[in-house]
Design goal:
334 residues, 2 domains, Spore Coat Polysaccharide Biosynthesis Protein SpsA, Chain A, disordered C terminus, two-stranded antiparallel ribbon, single chain, nine-stranded mixed beta sheet
Length: 334
């Protein structure tokens, strides 16, 4: 582990690794030139209890590549989730006597930054002090744009996601969580946590990431709290980041997704109950169950391919009956 720089940073980049050491090294390599060129930028890699040799692999790469002047590794013994991993780097930086960066960039370990990705975020944030959070254009290796700017989940969006009926979708198109991607900067409700920059004052006002979210929905929750505090959130296509999604969990891959683990359902339930209340959540869940059941019957009758994660409805019902049992485990745990 290298010493923490004593001068204040303009940008702190936080990368949380969980058993993706090779991808993390590729991510570091992709930002090396830009980090060296930017003023007062440093990177902290949190190995989140991988227990597979990841920490040693990343430490060797930092030493071998001569990255010690701007990158450090912090190995956390136990994996308490993605939020806790990020906070392990953010908390000491923002503490009295800490590094006090102007901005914190959360960057997934399974990403590769395109040239000027960091500069694009910094330039926009410097010019728009009213903006608290901004996110990059997330794309596939071939440049295909992924969904990157989103709306907050709601009762209507959950009903639409379960029903999947063209006419209804058209009627509520302005409520869909993941609208069709566009390629111009615009305000959104929340951005993908794969590459999300946050102004220091946002953390000071709303707090760190909620560690009650083990994995998933933590960035939605954080952006929701920031929005209520008066901070806007923007999607910025001038910052481009490749994301190899789902490498740790297999949950978010678009082809043959894994069965959704308990912590996904717990995170969804935590978000809805915290921000909308138990009654709203109960009605929302009931509507989704009815809508999704209807869709599954219609899919069979129409002989459409099944693209849903396995046991989707059964897991929803099972976890909904016991929503508060938090599972502390690995990010790849089913």
């Amino acid at each position: 582990m290298t010493a923490v720089p004593t001068r204040p940073s303009r940008l702190l980049v936080v990368i949380v690794n969980y058993r993706t050491a090779d991808l993390t090294v590729d991510c570091l390599r992709s930002i090396e030139a830009e980090v060296r060129a930017l003023r007062n930028t440093r990177v902290v890699v949190i190995d989140n209890g991988s227990a597979d040799g990841s920490a040693a692999t990343i430490a060797r790469a930092i030493a071998a590549e001569g990255w010690e002047s701007w990158a450090e590794l912090v190995a956390v013994e136990h994996n308490h989730g993605y939020s806790a991993g990020n906070n392990a780097a953010i908390r000491p930086a923002l503490a009295p006597g800490g590094d006090a960066p102007a901005y914190v960039l959360l960057l997934n370990s399974d990403t590769v930054a395109r040239p000027a990705a960091l500069a694009g975020l910094l330039d926009f944030m410097d010019k728009h002090p009213e903006v608290g959070i901004a996110g990059s254009r997330i794309e596939d290796p071939d440049g295909t744009q992924q969904h990157s700017g989103f709306r907050f989940p709601s009762m209507i969006s959950e009903l639409e996601s379960g029903l999947r009926l063209g006419l209804f979708t058209k009627l509520v198109v302005d409520k869909i969580v993941a609208p069709d991607p566009v390629d111009f900067a615009h305000r959104v409700d929340w951005v993908a946590g794969a590459s999300m920059i946050v102004r220091r004052e946002v953390f000071e006002q709303v707090g760190l990431l909620d560690e009650g979210f083990f994995l998933y929905f933590e960035e939605v929750d954080f952006c929701f709290k920031a929005s209520r505090a008066g901070w806007s959130c923007w999607y910025l296509p001038q910052s481009r980041v490749v994301h190899f999604g789902g490498r740790s969990t297999g949950v978010t891959v678009r082809v043959n997704p894994r069965r959704r683990p308990r912590y996904w359902w717990e995170s969804r339930y935590r978000f809805f109950t915290r921000h909308y209340g138990p009654a709203y959540t109960f009605v929302t869940d009931l509507l989704w169950i009815c809508a999704f059941s209807t869709y599954r019957v219609r899919r069979r009758l129409q002989r459409k391919p099944d693209t849903d994660p396995p046991h989707m409805l059964a897991d929803f019902l099972r976890f909904r009956m016991h929503p508060t049992r938090h599972t502390v485990g690995t990010q790849a745990e089913a």
